[in-house]
Design a protein that fits this description.
This protein has helices at 30-44, 48-58, 63-75, 79-90, 103-115, 119-128, 135-150, 153-160; strands spanning 16-18, 91-92, 96-98. The protein is mainly α.
Length: 179
């Protein structure tokens, strides 16, 4: 199980879709693709630290590699670092979620917020990907549904009243996806 053991800030981030030029999120070229495959293999071997070293050595600038870096940081428990990376590639004007960003980036951002105990931010980020098609969305929705089913009646009432019960939402999968 992946659970945050750190205390994070609980600021509310507003996720409104804002169109932005799509040139910043360019297509993956073959070097990025090749590097992502190596990173994915290292993550499967549960060596995110080695994956980070590989990314850093490459000196390739790509939002896809920033996503991979953030995934590695989440797997190492550095949730705030991952959040900061996602903010740099997903948010415009500080509070607007980029509409042209890949769904996987948005889902990973939601997971980083969740692991950093920013439940309001997690809920907002997850709501921003509604209607999109990605396996991570289904996993996250199932995780939240399973969590809600485990709550007591009083905790459910607390949730309905807008207060998040002090019960952690635990992931049953490694945080973050590369694709």
């Amino acid at each position: 199980m992946y659970q945050n053991h750190q205390t994070g800030s609980h600021e509310k981030v507003h996720f409104q879709q804002q169109p932005v030029e799509s040139s910043r999120l360019s297509q993956q070229d073959s070097n990025v693709d090749e590097l992502l495959k190596k990173v994915e293999q290292l993550l499967l071997e549960d060596t995110p630290d080695r994956a980070l070293q590989l990314i850093a050595k490459s000196k390739i600038k790509s939002d896809w590699l920033k996503n991979a870096t953030a995934v590695c940081q989440m797997r190492l428990g550095n949730y705030q670092v991952a959040i900061d990376i996602y903010r740099s590639i997903l948010l415009t004007n500080g509070v607007f979620l980029r509409s042209d960003a890949p769904t996987v980036f948005k889902c990973n951002f939601a997971v980083a917020l969740l692991l950093n105990k920013n439940i309001q931010g997690f809920d907002s980020a997850l709501a921003a990907v509604r209607g999109a098609d990605h396996p991570a969305i289904s996993r996250l929705k199932t995780t939240v549904k399973d969590w809600k089913q485990k709550l007591t009646i009083w905790q459910k009432i607390q949730l309905v009243c807008g207060t998040h019960p002090n019960v952690p939402i635990e992931l049953s999968f490694p945080p973050g996806d590369l694709h």
